[in-house]
Amino acid sequence: MRLPHLGLFLPLLLLGEGFAGEPFRGGPRPIPGVVEAEDFDAGDAGVAYRDLTEANQGADYRGPTQVDIERRPDASNGHGIGWARAGEWLTYTVEAVDPGPYTLEIPVASAKAGGRFHIEFDGKDATGPIQVPDTGGWTKLQTIRIDGVRVPAGRTVMKLVMDADGVSGFVGDIDCMTFRRPQEPATPPQKP
Ligand SMILES: [Ca+2]
Ligand SMILES: [Ca+2]
Predict the structure, then answer these.
(1) pLDDT tens by residue, 33-85
(2) What are the E-state strand segments in 64-136?
(3) Peptide bond into 32 cis (omega under 30)
(4) 16 — pLDDT class (breaks 50, 70, 90)
(5) Residue 78 to residues 38, 75, 139, 144: CA-CA distances in angstroms?
(6) Confidence grade of residue 5 (pLDDT, cut at 50, 70, 90)
(7) What's 99's DSSP letter?
(8) Which CATH superfamily hosts domain 20-180?
(9) Ligand 2 centre from 115 Cα, in Å?
């Protein structure tokens, strides 16, 4: 074989620049709107996500994935991500109407103090470090609010990046990321 790696190269060439994943179930998630943490892009490890454990330690929400997804009745869409560890990340193809600024709301849960994460658009940090508090238990969601988040207009890749584990041993459970106009009321949870 003169080109033993052609089978590997060809799919990479077809993917084109950025090696991005594809939106999960439908098109890009609109902003303003709700981006469910469990609805990260479809695609392989290293492309759509990075996860440090081989198995999905939670629920079978979307077929085989390394990402740890948990079923939880208190969460928007009935699911969220759990067992999140520093070094992991998830990508979401989104499409913003305009750059905002937006108010970003993220329901999280953690028993003991959680860790830190941030959110990027096209590789640029848009939030700075977000600290997950002790919410009183893994079953108790508490919503973190970040004001003045700017988002590139049009279709971009949003990346949820886990930066540091907390006393809990994890970053925290994350339900969804809601981008809304500052003057609009909070969005109620989405039915599963
Ligand atoms: Ca895993
Ligand atoms: Ca959710």
Answers:
(1) 999 999 999 999 999 999 999 999 999 999 999 999 999 999 999 999 999 99
(2) 69-71, 79-81, 89-96, 102-110, 116-121, 124-125, 130-131
(3) yes
(4) very low
(5) 10, 5, 13, 19
(6) low
(7) -
(8) Galactose-binding domain-like (2.60.120.260)
(9) 19
- Reading the block at residue 20, the tokens are 């991005």
How far apart are alpha carbons 2 and 83 in whole angstroms? 44
> How far does the centroid of ligand 1 lie from the alpha carbon of residue 153, in Å?
32
Q: Where are the domains of the chain?
A: 20-180
Cα distance between residue 76 and residue 60, in whole Å: 16
Ligand located closest to 61 CA: 2
Residues, CB within 5 angstroms of ligand 1 (ion)? 51, 53, 66, 68
pLDDT digits (tens, 9 = 90+) for 114-159: 999 999 999 999 999 999 999 999 999 999 999 999 999 999 999 9
Measured in Å, residue 14 CA sits from the centre of ligand 2 at: 32
Q: Coil, strand, or helix at residue 156?
A: strand
- Quick one: which of 14, 12, 83, 98 has its CA closest to 52? 83
Ligand closest to CA 173? 2
